Amino acid sequence: IIVNKKGLQFIMNNYLDLKNIKAFSEYSKLEEAGQIIRNGGLVLFPTETVYGLGANGLNSEAVKNIYVAKGRSSDNPLILHISDIEMLGKIAKDISDVEFKLMNAFWPGPFTIILNKTDAVPSVVAGGLDTVGVRMPNNEIAKNLIKYADVPIAAPSANISGRPSGTNVEDIDQELKDRVDYIIDGGECQIGVESTVVRVIDGIPHILRPGKITAEEIKEVAGSVIIDKHILGKLDANEKVMSPGMKYKHYAPNTKCVLVYNDDKEILRANICKTVGDCYTSNKVPLVICLDENAEFLKNMYQNLQIFNLGSSLDEMSKNIFTDLRKADKTNADLIIIQGVSTDGLGLAIMNRLLRACNFNIIR
Ligand code: TXA
Ligand code: MG
């Protein structure tokens, strides 16, 4: 047993490369990681959204180590990840028709539903609440890992609390490698923002955290949907929230960030230029993170401006945003200027993350 600086005890320290899987039989390599989970260890693993920091979701000692490793507040509950519907009955009860409908529509996939928990779920997983978030990921490595572990895996996003979530192993290796027993490298995550978190109240789904499954898609399945007002708004001190995660600082690089958005593309671009110009006048180094259309324009306008191009679609943007925020910290920039997007569809999830990364500092 190895003990690290944080006082975490390690069963072992290992790395499994599954970046280029060629045959289905290779997933059997996950048996060892599955055993480590079952025996109380911490495993870093990929999902289709972001990397997770997983432990045996039925073992409170193992789950406590997740909070220590992340530096996460103990009242912020964790999601239980399951590989098949049989696992659901053990951890959740009193499931309604609307809830079943939503699970049917979006599982496996980037969709988390808050359900009444059974006594089998330790109170540390639920952050002391009587509910539990459940998700069936759509990623072969995650699914096989859960199967081999043969228990639901409790897993938050793999990052030190407050930092951008990890969407590839290189980004989080340094901050987490001394805090986990085992790392599974599955390459880049396909989606890049965390799952949509939903709680059904009186038959109406409330979105507590937006993600790849959009409000529009949920409405189509359930007939109605409510977007919690805290998703795009700042919390007042001591305000009551439906999801503890809303209270905490999130997704933030160390460098100061500002978000620039306007429905009018010309005004948006002019505001980016004005912010860049202000940096130059005050001898500050700007870095712009934006979509293709603006990247091209800015490159021609300012010869030496550092620009990170997020791509040309919301899907590309969500895939790249966390890794770009982390990369931005490695530049000499004094200010990160980020282009916002409309809150339709996946845009809601992107703006939810960006507003927090910028601490609600937005130029409209
Ligand atoms: O895509 C994802 O959801 C990733 C991957 C690893 O599955 N996981 C993830 O977990 O993002 P985490 O812990 O970083 O975020 C979970 C969010 C938190 O904001 C938490 O407050 C909320 O879900 N949550 C979890 N259980 C809850 C519950 N019982 N009631 C209300 N909110 C809950
Ligand atoms: Mg997180």
Walk me through the structure.
31% of the residues lie in helices and 20% in strands. The protein contains eleven helices and 19 strands. The chain has helices at residues 31-38, 60-70, 88-91, 97-106, 140-149, 169-176, 215-222, 265-281, 292-301, 314-329, 347-357; strands spanning 2-3, 9-10, 14-17, 43-45, 52-56, 79-81, 92-93, 111-117, 131-135, 153-154, 182-185, 196-201, 204-209, 226-227, 256-260, 286-290, 306-309, 335-339, 362-363. The mean pLDDT is 95. The structure holds threonylcarbamoyladenylate and magnesium ion (MG). Residues 47, 49-50, 52, 76-79, 110, 112, 114, 126, 129, 131-133, 135, 155-157, 194-195, 197, 208-209, 243-245 line the site of threonylcarbamoyladenylate.
